[in-house]
Structures are given as C-alpha cells and as structure tokens.
Design a protein that fits this description.
It comes from Thelephora ganbajun. The protein contains nine helices and 20 strands.
Length: 438
C-alpha cells in the first residue's frame, strides 16, 4: 500500500546482525534490510522512542491520513512478541513527546490540555490489553504552565523545563512518580530577575461560543486602565481566545472547524469580543494574527472596529493558497473538496480576503518570511500592494531567511520591534506618530 499525503511508515532495521532471540530478531536475520513496523493504514507518526531494555518501541500516531490535526494515540510495539497495541485511543488528548521510565514500567509523555502543556504518566502493560478504557485517564504530575524536554531519571523521577506567562524556562524535578501524590520542585532560578516586573499570570475565562464553551485569557499589566505576554509590556490588555479548530480542548473542538472555516471560528471570536467589551478601551483596540489569524482579520465585515493590524504570514488570496501551499491535502480535508470543485470555489468567493480589498481601510503591518512555502512571499507582497492601492497606511517587513516562523534571536528582536513600533503609531501613548525605521 502506498503512503498517503501525511502517512509516515516506520521501518525497523538492526545496526548489527542480531541473534535469533526473538521473533523480531529472526525476522531481521531473514531480511538484513529490516522490515516494516507500521504500514500506511494511518496518518503521520511522531518519532519513535525505544525502551531502555530495547524490547519495546513507543510513538504517537494520528489515525487519519491527509490530516495534521487528527487525534494522536500512544502506540507501543513489543519487539519480542511482534505485536502492537494502543494505550490512549479512549483518551481525548494527543500525546506529544514520549519517554520510558528508567525501569521501563511507565511511559511519561507531554500533551496539550486546556491551553497548557502537561506531563502525563501511564503504566506499560505486561501484555497486549484487551481494551485501553481503563487507561483513559493518565496520571498528571503537572497541571499548570507549559512543560517540555522531559528527561526520566532513576528512582521514579522526571526532569523537565517549564515556563509560564510570567517567566521563561526553568528546570523542574518531579519525585515519586510511582506513587501519589508526587512532589514537584524548581531546581533553577534563571528568571528571578523578572520578579517585580509587572508580568501578569493571566485571568482565564470561558464563554458560550458557536457550538460549545470557548476558553480565553485576559492579561493585564501594571498601569492598566480599562485599556501574549510581550505585547502587554507596552501597557495594554491582551485577549487570547482559541476558537473552534483549536487544539488542547479535546478533539471535538478541533474538528468543529471542519467545513466551517468561514463560520464557527469567527462567531467564537465575535462572542469573545463582546464578552470583554466591558474591560477594554475599544478606541485603542488592535489585533495581531498569523496564517489563518491573518485571514480572519483581513475580513473586515465582522465588526471588530480595530485601529491597527499586524499580520504575520497571513492568507491573502485563498485560491492562490489552495494551489501554492505545501499542504495540498488541506482543502479536501477541511473544506470538503479540491480547489477546483464547486464547494471550494464558493468558499473562496465568499471568504477570500482578496475579494474584500475594496472594504480595507485599517492600517496594517505585514511581516513575511521569504522562505515560507506554506504561504509564499508573493502573498505578503500582494497584500501590501492591495493596501497601497486602497490608500490604507501599511508597512511590509520581509525576513529573507524566515519561513513560516521567526527562526533566530536577531529576527525575533526585529519582529518585536516591528510589532510594537507599528501599533504605537496608532494607539500608543509615548510613541504616538513615531514612524518605524528600517
């Protein structure tokens, strides 16, 4: 079977000639080039991880081919018994990075959950379980902030980085993962100098969206007067709202955007906007968005009344993007048909920002990576030309070595300068009317 557009096939190849101690080893001896662990009956697989005794392999696997946002399931392959089994198919979160404990009795992994990235723990079954329902709720030793770079240590301990709205990464250690409750301690204090810098831990809220509850964050800084982290440092309030299609809130919310990219997420954002109107100064409201976020803010008919926009690698012409993107499977999966079919053409007619240029008037700064193959550089240039022809204030910043993201520290500094300088021109206090320099 040939792999599909996102299918990833795993192949097991020994680096030395193994002794015939197991069925897997005997298979490898018969075929010195190795054999397939996983064939193309699923979506992409994340990098596999070996147990310490080299008898098992674990990875996260997406169920559906042609999709990058499907539910990921934790899979374990027993190399001795030549069989695989899934551990989290009944659990409504998607495992990411994976590690075996030092004694191989547990699997530690990270997963996004409610706008955080947490550590979870599951026991490794001695044999293939008949059902993974009893494993549907992994134990989580961390419940807040964002965790990464997990590293198991002897004695049921786990080392990892953790960051939050108020500090970047510090090293943390969890002890007693083989019993409850586990204890967590912070080992490094790299970021103590940020104490007292008026960084806000964030206020979480929920509101009724298009179909289900939607979560949001409000972040306020010292000096807030009814007016994500670094944007707040200029003295404003920031609202972050993951609409339909977002991850970490369960697969139902992620899948809710399918077939409704021009509807439900925009309704969610509108309702979130109405929810916070009593705590913001609408005359000083601005927005920044990337990719689909740029697509949303370039549709001016949704009534946000913003004073300025920043668009990072955002969509301009949907039809061009349908053919130029590196994700050629995207529209068939998310809209329902290929770009030339009637359903997709009608979607493009209604919602492509390029079809609404005649309504554009909001000042916009465009940031574009020249090596972006998701939304090529012509997209940013075209949007800039459209703004100029409409007579709307605009600025175009191109990053020659940037792709769909900002890749290094120097570019990050320049990126933040572009954002702050542009927004200050229209809603800033100290730097009002100050032009950005090249």
């Amino acid at each position: 079977m040939s792999p599909g557009p996102t299918s990833c096939i795993l192949r097991w190849t020994p680096t030395d000639r193994p002794r015939a101690a197991s069925r897997m080893a005997r298979r490898a001896e018969r075929n010195s080039e190795g054999f397939w662990l996983r064939i193309a009956k699923h979506g992409t697989t994340h990098p596999p991880v070996f147990s310490n005794d080299r008898t098992k392999v674990a990875w996260a696997e997406l169920a559906g081919d042609g999709c990058e946002s499907d539910h990921a399931v934790l899979v374990v392959y027993d190399l001795k018994k030549d069989e695989s089994y899934k551990l989290t198919s009944c659990w409504d979160r998607s495992p990411a990075s994976i590690s075996f404990s030092e004694d191989d009795k547990y699997i530690y992994f990270t997963a996004g959950s409610k706008a955080r990235v947490k550590v979870f723990v599951l026991p490794v079954p001695a044999s293939k379980p008949g059902s993974d329902k009893k494993l549907a709720s992994p134990f989580k030793p961390t419940d807040e902030h964002t965790t990464s770079a997990i590293q198991p240590l002897p004695g049921s301990r786990l080392l990892y980085f953790q960051n939050s709205f108020t500090k970047p990464n510090d090293v943390h250690l969890t002890r007693g993962l083989n019993q409850l409750p586990a204890s967590v301690s912070q080992l490094t204090r790299f970021t103590e100098e940020l104490n007292g810098k008026s960084l806000d831990a964030g206020e979480e809220f929920y509101f009724d969206g298009a179909e289900m509850k939607i979560q949001g964050w409000i972040l306020k800084l010292k000096g807030y007067r009814k007016n994500n982290r670094s944007v707040c440092s200029t003295g404003v309030l920031r609202r972050c709202c993951p609409p339909s299609g977002s991850t970490t809130f369960g697969q139902d919310l992620t899948d809710a955007i399918k077939g409704g990219w021009g509807g439900k997420p925009l309704v969610d954002l509108q309702k979130g906007w109405q929810y916070i109107l009593d705590v913001i100064d609408r005359d000083h409201a601005v927005a920044a968005g990337a990719d689909y976020g740029g697509w949303i803010q370039r549709n001016p008919g949704y009534g946000f009344g913003l004073k300025a926009l920043v668009c990072h690698d955002g969509v301009f012409d949907s039809q061009y993007g349908e053919y130029s993107t590196d994700e050629h499977y995207f529209f068939k999966r998310e809209i329902g048909e290929q770009p030339w079919k009637d359903k997709t053409r009608e979607f493009t007619r209604r919602f492509s920002p390029s079809n609404h240029v005649h309504k554009w008037s909001t000042p916009e700064s465009i940031i574009q990576g020249n090596k972006n193959y998701r939304l090529p550089e012509a997209v940013g240039i075209a949007a800039s030309h459209a703004l100029q022809q409409q007579g709307a204030p605009s600025r175009l910043a191109m990053f020659p070595d940037g792709n769909h993201r900002v890749l290094n520290h120097g570019n990050s500094l320049k990126w933040h300068y572009e954002v702050f300088c542009w927004l200050n021109q229209f809603v800033g206090k100290d730097n009002a009317n100050q032009k950005c320099s090249d």
